[in-house]
Amino acid sequence: MPLGAFKAALMGTAGVSAEAAVVLLHDTDYSNAASAAITSGIDSTYGEYIFRFYAMNPATNNVHFQFNGSTDSGSNYNATKTTTVFHSYNGESNGTSLGYDASYDLAQSTSDQLLLPGIGNGADECGAGELHLFNPSSTTYAKHFYATTNSHFHNNYAHESFIGGYFNTTSAIDAVQFKMSSGNFDGTIKMWGVK
């Protein structure tokens, strides 16, 4: 269903005009899921896809919520990517930090990209955020993405992550998978297409 320009502005989609369409394409609540694969709707219809994830709570303590792309409609999730990550956090005991974290970068890697690091699995611990993917159907250029996330870190920190990078392939990215680095999860994932 198309959303109006007011809702598009609230979503932070730069350059969206009153005539533009922002369409909800995927809205699923996951319960004790091993992974969440979105295998339809990512095509040449939209130039940008926005994924939002809400209340991502892992079954296992201190695990990462992560994603990967597919170039074969979801048969494999191993698209080559190069990324960079930095974090900020503030602890319940008031310890703070802001800095680049090379340990989560990927350099021409097919590994999953971290989105929410070290989430706790307590009843009050979870993570949320959004991922923007640009022009995934291009068969000429790399496919850029960025994400901003916030989580209740496993050792009682408010933890924010900033991730940017690109899928370094001339094949179209036509499916995306989300999962924890270990164990199952609960949460909601939505995807919008932006014309």
Write up this protein.
With 195 residues, the protein is mainly beta. It has one helix spanning 5-11, and strands at residues 2-3, 22-33, 36-38, 48-58, 63-70, 81-91, 96-100, 113-119, 127-134, 143-152, 157-167, 175-180, 185-194. The chain has a single domain (2-194), classed as Jelly Rolls (Sandwich). A hairpin with a 4-residue loop joins strand 10 (143-152) and strand 11. It is globular, with a radius of gyration of 16 Å. The mean pLDDT is 91.
The value of Rg in angstroms is 16 Å
- Considering DSSP H and I runs of 4 or more, what fraction of the residues is helical? under 10%
Q: What class, by secondary structure content?
A: mainly beta
Total of DSSP H or I helical runs spanning 4+ residues:
1
The CATH class: Mainly Beta
Which architecture would the CATH scheme give at its second level?
A: Sandwich
Strand content: over 45%
Overall tally of structural domains:
1
What do the pLDDT scores average to? 91
Q: Distance N terminus to C terminus?
A: 13 Å
What's the main sheet like? Answer: 9 strands, antiparallel
**How would you write the strand order of the largest sheet?**
1-2-13-4-9-10-11-6-7
Low-confidence stretches: none
